[in-house]
Amino acid sequence: MVRSGWKIIPLHCSHEPITGSEAEDKTVASLSHLRNSLDQDGTLIDSELRVVSVGETLARFTEEESHRDYFVHMKRLFNSIASNLAQNVGATAILTGENLGQVSSQTLGNLGAVEEASSLRILRPLLGLDKQAIIDEARDIGTYKISSGPEVCDALGPPRPTTVADLVRLRNNEAVLGGIESLANHCFSTLRTRELSAE
């Protein structure tokens, strides 16, 4: 997207205190690398990473009724938070790294449910690529080694996540907790920034 001239305002949803800061640190390192390699004049990737804490909110989706849909609720929360940020900065779309079928929340049956929580269109440039093509691209742009290592976003996830979530059930589970917009607003109130460093 940077190569196509898009302006990127990066957002990271931190799972702290459920996990450590490793994922956030990798995000900062990857974005700093991309700013230096693809955006030398610093006009396309914003110099600040916006960080929002979601760990405690996501822990509320580990109850029996909602746990099977945990990853779908997580992505819905992310999209709602991103919509809040977009309104604040004047963004016109949400850009994600989702890839069809690679994980449970990215099945065709779940992508629509995930998308519903956003007030903006969602751009998914990796959607149809196979895993090896994505790895090859990451190696080509220099982010593969930075991003390698264990995933921490699934720390609270269920052993058998749903692959086709029921929208009514999702909305009901979220309504019990105050609704997805209210949850996103609460998370968004924790917004902080981290400066992206020069290499």
Key features of this structure:
199 residues; Rossmann fold; two-stranded parallel sheet; 44% helix; mainly alpha; three-stranded mixed beta sheet
Descriptive notes:
With 199 residues, the protein is mainly α. The chain has a single domain (11-195), classed as Rossmann fold (3-Layer(aba) Sandwich). It contains nine helices and five strands. It has helices spanning 22-38, 55-59, 64-67, 70-89, 108-115, 131-141, 144-147, 167-176, 180-188; strands at 11-14, 48-53, 93-95, 121-123, 192-195. A three-stranded mixed beta sheet has the order 1-2-5, with helices on both faces. Strands 3-4 form a two-stranded parallel sheet. β1 (11-14), α1 and β2 form a beta-alpha-beta unit. α4 (70-89) crosses α9. The relative contact order is 0.21.
Helix-strand blueprint:
Layout: E1 11-14, H1 22-38, E2 48-53, H2 55-59, H3 64-67, H4 70-89, E3 93-95, H5 108-115, E4 121-123, H6 131-141, H7 144-147, H8 167-176, H9 180-188, E5 192-195
Parallel strand pairs: 1-2, 3-4
Antiparallel strand pairs: 2-5
Helix pairs in contact: 4-5, 4-9
